[in-house]
User: Fold MupG family TIM beta-alpha barrel fold protein from Dielma fastidiosa.
Amino acid sequence: MMTLGISVYPDLQTVAEIKSYIEMASHYGIQTVFSSMWSVEGNKPAILNYFYELIEIAHCHSMQVCLDVNPECFKKLDADYNDLSVFKEINADILRMDISYDLEKSIALINNPYSIRIEFNASVTPPNFIQQLIEQGANVSNMSVSHNFYPQRYTGMKWNQFIENNEALKKLGVRVSAFISSQNDNTLGVWGASQGLCTVEKLRFLPMEQQVRILAATENVDQLVVGNAPASAEELQACCESLKVIEPDDEMPGVSIMKKFGAERNRFFPQKKLRLILNPLVTENEKDILFHFMPHSDVGDSSEWIWRSRMPRFLKPNIPYRCAAGEMFDVGDVVMVNNHYQHYAGEVQIVLQPIVNDGTRNLLGHLIDGEEQILELIRAGDVVVFLKGEN
Assistant:
């Protein structure tokens, strides 16, 4: 399952503020603390003492610490690719190489005797460099990649480039991390960041929980780190809730139906989560099917016009016709087949292209803005989980 992390800024936050943020985040299952080591001023002892204390705070809350470093930072701390003893002394877990060494030195760095994980900059390091590292003896279990964050609006990565890079990296068996933006008031970050701190530009101003669901739906990102700080408790809670996987339970009507057809456990995964605003006229029976039936999934042959969850019809539900305004259903409408088409009554459908409102479907609601990005990531056979949005 995807994990979450937070960023802290020693040059912009007090130790007390950072400690409080880490403690708060720990309540929501946050697993990683990211911080820049090269941005802190001072001599070697002062820097090491500061990060020793920071790492101790994180470890007390069962979090790993990822330190952003580069060769110049190594020089300042009397470290090099063959000697990471200073990082071992402060109990560092992960070193993110914002700028990397060459191939041979990077292999030595990865294969360090302390098992400090080495993370490469996925935004500027081509996948073939990672492949070369692995082919020439780098321990793949002791390496990962992390994308950049981009403080300046309009400078984040292209979506297609992000997806293509991650797909190539995942084929190599490498763990991939990226950054998302908190929309909390008065956040801070590197270089006066005030407009979010994310990897992908088109996600910059979306609600944080929606960014998480979109990136989880790609299935090629293992960790998301909140770039700016602090995220609110409400944001972190919503993100962690959205990542929870719904396990199949034999008591669920849909699960028992699927098992009669011989479905294996993996048929209930992966789960893509979509949030919608409900039609005020939706019935309790319709809501129960929409939100509590599992699994909502097509069988691999949905058309260009609608995505279909067929299994609810096997419940033989009573879905009385309800008039829906307008001659057409729009893209993003979520509908349910009613008793006017008895054989299919109970099917949950998502409109992908405008379709005629012929009286056989009731309007359940409409996807919130931004959910179309998840729709594009739903593949044949994927399970969809519907979440209620705020009116």
